[in-house]
Amino acid sequence: MTTLDRLAAEKYLLLTTFRKDGRAVATPVWAVRDGDALAVWTAANSGKVKRIRRSGEVTVAPCDVRGRPHGEPVPGHATLCDPAGTRRVRGLIKQKYRLIGRLSLLGSRLRRGEGGTVGVRVTLAG
């Protein structure tokens, strides 16, 4: 089993982005496999989106719902998805997380609108 397969099978991943001064900011997120990368879905105006837009340098590690890691972090590069890519990520989230995924996506769409969230693709280093 590859590192990508192991991470994609986890329920939560700790996505760590980096501020301009190098400080790490870690957030537990849902993640799905999207071809040769991992994909996550997040609010379009979140801090992690701003940090990814600036550099794209990230690490991902398996974690629990509270963000406590239970594996080694893996370096990667994150890019923001276009609207079509974001729709694809939403569909993958619905498949993996079933009812709770559908309800979360619906609640988010009602709160933020269709453009209020964005998909993020993480390509693992190596």
Automatic annotation (TrEMBL):
Superkingdom of the source species: Bacteria
Keywords annotated in UniProt: Oxidoreductase
GO CC terms: cytosol
Chain segments annotated as transmembrane: none
Record GO terms (molecular function): coenzyme F420 binding; oxidoreductase activity, acting on the CH-CH group of donors
Keyword presence, Oxidoreductase: yes
InterPro entries: F420H2_bilvrd_red/Heme_oxyg, PPOX_F420-dep_Rv2061_put, Split_barrel_FMN-bd
Record keyword Repeat present: no
NCBIfam families referenced in this protein's UniProt entry, alphabetically: Rv2061_F420 (TIGR03666)
Name assigned to this protein: Uncharacterized protein
Organism: Micromonospora echinaurantiaca
Lineage summary: Bacteria, Bacillati, Actinomycetota, Actinomycetes, Micromonosporales
